[in-house]
Design brief:
Chain lengths: ~90, ~60
């Protein structure tokens, strides 16, 4: 289903899930053995990783520091005249 | 002596009292959906307390 998302929608989902990951991380600092929170946290991380992989495959890297999950085509951003996420392309 | 004697000061009847803070244990409940949380700034509905000024803010 995620394969059908537009670039902007995919980025938004990544941002939304990243925020949930931060929140759950903070909650687990004070509630390290909350089973439901732990379960949700691992679910969110798994989903997030999947979404980031999809983004990397379809649209290129999310960060400009070599952290892309998918190898290859590193220099695409030099050749193409477009903005990348870290250049302020995705400000909603 | 310039530095006040803190022991003497705290014995005075109008001296401030020590504070006692109590915060209830947060429960894992009433979560926002993933697509709502980011826009509320929290995943917990119970922590969503938007600031509503009693009169319009002037800038």
């Amino acid at each position: 289903m995620d394969q059908m998302l537009s670039r902007q929608d995919l980025m938004r989902k990544i941002q939304e899930l990243s925020f949930c990951a931060v929140e759950l991380n903070l909650f687990l600092d004070t509630h390290p053995s909350d089973a439901q929170a732990l379960q949700d946290y691992s679910y969110v991380l798994k989903e997030l990783q999947q979404l980031k992989q999809n983004y990397n495959q379809k649209y290129g890297p999310l960060l400009g520091f070599g952290e892309a999950y998918v190898s290859g085509n590193y220099w695409k951003w030099v050749a193409e005249d477009e903005k990348w996420p870290w250049e302020g392309d995705m400000v909603f | 002596m310039i530095t006040p004697n803190i022991e003497q000061y705290l014995k005075h009847e109008s001296a401030p009292k020590l504070a006692q803070a109590y915060i209830p244990i947060q429960m894992y409940r009433n979560l926002f959906n993933v697509n709502e949380a980011l826009y509320h700034g929290t995943i917990f509905r119970e922590l969503f307390q938007p600031y509503k000024p009693s009169h319009p803010l002037k800038f």
